[in-house]
Write a structure and sequence with these properties.
3 strands, HTH_17, globular, 3 helices, DNA-binding, SinI_DNA-bd
């Protein structure tokens, strides 16, 4: 059930899901491939952005 809220995850959680380094996730952010926000001093990835990125990788591979 969707509440319309955007879920935020840590850079490390995104890196773990992609099986890459945190540095690689930061590069994806800087390249505009992942959306992120600052919460205080912390960087958080917009979950939908990560899901869209993964879906795009799957489409490219097909």
């Amino acid at each position: 059930m969707s509440t319309g809220r955007q879920e935020l995850i840590t850079v490390q959680a995104a890196a773990d899901q992609l099986s890459v380094s945190r540095w690689s996730v930061y590069r994806l952010i800087w390249d505009g491939r992942l959306s992120s926000v600052h919460v205080g001093r912390c960087r958080r990835i917009v979950r939908q952005s990560l899901d869209n990125y993964i879906a795009g990788l799957i489409e490219e591979a097909a």
